[in-house]
Fold this sequence. Notes:
By secondary structure, the chain is of the alpha+beta class. Strands 2-1-3 form a 3-stranded antiparallel beta sheet. The radius of gyration is 11 Å and the shape is globular.
Amino acid sequence: MMRDKFTKAYIYHADIYCVECGEALPLVDPENNDRHPVASWELSEFETETTCGGCHKTINGAGN
């Protein structure tokens, strides 16, 4: 799956992941939900600073 230039994170199995960690995840989670890309403008909708569920880095754009 190719990501577009607006993808800044992924939602997978009830957590959010940075692009690097998210692209390493399977396309479908254990509950049979597709890995979902999060666009840059969607990150600003998060009310708190968001960290990656894999590497724990702050995902830029969240909490702004």
